[in-house]
Amino acid sequence: MGRKANQKWNFASKRKESAIKSPQEDFFGVSCWIALPTERIIYSGLKMYMVESKGGAIVCMLLSLFFLGTWPAIMTMLERRGRLPQHTYLDYTITNLLAAVIIAFTFGEIGSERPNFISQLSQDNWPSVLFAMAGGVVLSIGNLSTQYAWAFVGLSVTEVITSSMTVVIGTTLNYFLDDKINKAEILFPGVGCFLIAVCLGSFVHSSNAADNRIKLNTLSSDYKLGTESTSTTITNEEIPDNVGTKDLESGNVTARKAKAGTANYLIELENRRAIKVFGKNTFIGLAITFFAGVCFSLFSPAFNLATNDQWHTLKNGVPHLTVYTAFFYFSVSCFVVALILNITFIYHPVLNTPRSSLKAYLTDWNGRGWAFLAGLLCGFGNGLQFMGGQAAGYAAADAVQALPLVSTFWGILLFGEYRKSSRRTYILLVSMLFMFIVAVGILMASSGHRK
Fold first, then answer.
1. What confidence score (pLDDT) does residue 391 get?
2. How far apart are CA 157 and CA 168, in angstroms?
3. Which of 31, 85, 254, 397 is most buried (CB neighbours < 10 A)?
4. Which of 238, 244, 305 is nearest to 278 (CA)?
5. First to last CA, the chain
6. Helix (H, G, I), strand (E, B) or coil at 295
7. What's phi and psi for 195, nearest 5 deg?
8. Where are the domains of the chain?
9. How far is residue 438's CA from residue 116's CA, in Å, rounded to a whole number?
10. Average pLDDT per run of 10 along the chain, which is 451 residues long?
11. Phi and psi dihedrals of 117, rounded to 5?
12. HEC string of 137-182?
């Protein structure tokens, strides 16, 4: 009996060893996990959880795409309801940091094969930490900038421009930083498709702006319409008082709601929102948008350098930062920058937004739950993007920059964007969304595997 038991134990050990020695088996998809013996699964549970398969990386990117495309819609909704962007962003940044802490103390603490999160906090890895924190700084500034760009340029167009700049600049940088592990013959045609979608997006914006001018021309001649092609020059004084009124203390709109897509709806929105855009040149919004795009294009390469140390800044023997540790430092710097800038903007507002105070912020619970949700979605979305990028290459993970697909969907569903627009606008909109879908598929197909 003893000999038979030993033979069974030896047989199980051999199966376990063979499973451990062939990590490439799970590269081509998640399905191969089903065929693995139970010993392989148990072993995986004993080490730090890291996404290593191509299938797992794609799942991370798809979830990230949904999360990162949804939180801007929530922030836009709150601004359109009249909540000050400074208040909203302070709430958002708290839960954004909370998401990183949750990821660090769960995924970052499972098992002991790699240096876990706690042990890496005391290691001599400051060059990598600084890269991670630099990425958090530029992302925080970019996110803060887009809060104002959404009001001036609109949710869909802002996301299209910033995402395109991220893909063109950031993806190219990540491709070379990752030692070209992504398939260039697939990756760069995907970047090209993204650029085509960007051009279509700008045409959508131009066509929709023309549609809005026609709608506003149907109003009484008492309300003037500017002739510029890039902005509607109705001033706040020219907005009729009976379109919508607002209780500034409670944030409740007391007037009847106009139908989405009508001229009355556009003016009612201006009365209600926190950032007034009538009478201001759209080029202000475009300048903010392009600035945000530059910031967004740099945060992913900085994070790539933090986790893979391509420039060999760490001392010999010091392990690279894990994704979870780097993301924690990344989010801490993001939080600190957002805290400093938004408290400054509370007392010294920009773009003629109302002045506020910390006391007013603490008592402003109107929409706070939505802002907390936006922070969680953004935090987990960024974390999933980095987890997928570590496995399949950060250039391929930039496929999540097709988030305008999701943002445009929410813009149409929640805010009535493109309602009652012309046939030309609808054709351009569908073409833009189709090209985004193609771009996402191509960028994901370029995924490589980090050795």
1. 60
2. 17
3. 397
4. 238
5. 45
6. helix
7. -65, -40
8. 56-111+121-219+280-445
9. 38
10. 49 44 39 36 44 70 87 92 95 96 86 75 93 96 92 82 82 77 78 81 78 75 41 44 40 56 81 81 81 92 90 90 92 96 94 91 95 96 81 60 77 79 90 82 67 53
11. -60, -50
12. HHHHHHHHHHHHHHHHHCHHHHHHHHHHHHHHHHHHHHHHHCCCCC
SS3 83: coil
pTM for this one? 0.74
Strand partners of residue 253: 246
Residue position matching structure tokens 């063979």: 18
Tell the residue number behind the tokens 């994704």, with chain if given: 323
Q: Which residue has the tokens 């209780």?
A: 247
Q: Are 391 and 57 in contact (CB under 8 A)?
A: yes
Place of tokens 């420039």: 311
Question: What is the rounded distance in angstroms from the CA atom of residue 279 to the CA atom of residue 147?
Answer: 19
Rg (Cα) of the chain, in Å, rounded?
Answer: 25
Q: What is the pLDDT of residue 202?
A: 72
Residue 285 CA neighbour count, 13 Å, CB half: 25
Q: Determine the pLDDT at residue 368.
A: 96
Longest alpha-carbon distance in the chain: 100
Q: What DSSP string describes 332-382?
A: HHHHHHHHHHHHHHHHS-STTPPP--HHHHHH--TTHHHHHHHHHHHHHHH
Place of tokens 């929410």: 410
Q: Residue 84 has what pLDDT?
A: 95
Q: How far apart are CA 85 and CA 79, in angstroms?
A: 6
For residue 246, the cross-strand partners are 253
Side chain identity at 335, as an amino acid letter?
A: F
C-alpha dihedral over 262, 265, 270, 272, to 10 degrees? -170
What is the 8-class DSSP label of residue 447? -
**89 alpha-carbon distance from chain centroid:** 14
